[in-house]
Amino acid sequence: MDDGRVFDLILLGYRNDIARARTLEYLDQLPLALGPAQVDRGAELPQRLFTALDRERAQRLRAALEACGAQVALAQVSVADEEPSVGVPLVELPAVRAHAPRPFIILLVVALGAAAYLWRAGEPMLRQPPLPPRAEPLTAHSSNPGQPEAAPDYPEAVQPLQAAPEVNERADVLRTRGIAQLREGDYPAAATALERALQLAPKDPNALLALAEVYLKQDKRPQALDLLHRAKEAGVRSPELDKRMQQLSREVDAEWDFLQTESAHFRVSFADTQDGRAVRLVLATLEDAYFTVGSKFEDYPDDRTPVVLYTQQDFHNITQTPGWAGAAFDGRIKLPVRGLQADDTQLPRVVRHEYAHSLITQLSNGRAPVWLNEGLAVWAEETDEGEREAWAQQKIAGQELFTLEQMSTTFVHLQTTRAEVAYAQSYLAVRALIDIYGARKIPALLGSLAHSRNMGEAFAATYPGDLASFEERWLRQLTG
Predict the structure, then answer these.
(1) Looking at the whole model, is its pTM more than 0.85?
(2) Which residues are bridge partners to 307 per DSSP?
């Protein structure tokens, strides 16, 4: 019930440029009776947007603007029996777009030390057009000031704390639990714990970075971007953070008006100017890949895999991929759509390759080294076993070869010829594993990686012998 108090609503600022655009767009669409039809974009902030609002209307407008990413405040100015200067009648507020970021309610700040998650902020996995080199992988970078610290293993580090009810509302415990759940791939549970941690400690940089990573895993990109801005405001300084924010800003800005459609196993986002026939063709090809690639990895996820379709120009502008890349994977499959035809022989290969990256990332918890990730993705393209071997042997002929260690990180900075060698070698390494030990061991290897500290440990847990001995024999065969 209204208590008679009235308020002014003051615009203090914006979280970022995208939030500014959304806020102004929202204010511009308000009915004339609701408030400012035009905001003075050149005026210095703070700027008083509304005056003499009743409590209910003031709170609703504040919530709507905060959902757009605006920073606003309410100031009590008078009581209801005073004559308002600009009243706001009871007209229904327009809805804020569902994917606008929603800031968390600030309850109190608790500054506590803790362990946190090694935040993976790397290059996307790339695909080159017809004929490899193939996709470029997501890589993990060393810890730096823009990334949380490593967290103890879950559940060992967290379950003892859960036994005591009084610790469940401590920000440090919630943060550590959420980060451990993130490492285990339990994203809904991680989101719940980290969101509560940030209610208790809104400026905790490790919790902000970890929850941003959870939201990226859940394809909540605007919300993730908002959290990264908050982490920077909280004092995080890192080139990796800046790079991730720039990438997300490009994506969120480009996809603001994208449409979505779904099939049984995929969710595809695309511009409303895209050819509907091409979208349907991509969806059908993705569904085919779900079964053909899934049979190789013995995995058929229940969740829908996110896919984004860009124009050719937008694809390179947004992903910042080299000119030879014809698709990419960075948690979402990204495809440039240009005049696709039903008889396009390359589309099934590209789609199978990118979908394989999605499965590999899930099964290995993002820990597969680049050579394994890329080699398996090329293997996943094959209709007949070994059909890419002739291509791979031709690409490495007369070339200086890489070691597995040299192929453990991104290929994105390699020149085209060297990238082709790296992709070909990656495939041949996977081909050797399959020829020696069988394809049925591949899911076991990826599962071992998900729970191992490194590739050598995962190899020893899956195959007889050790990785170094395998590599020595394999390189000797390639050069013999």
Answers:
(1) no
(2) 268, 333
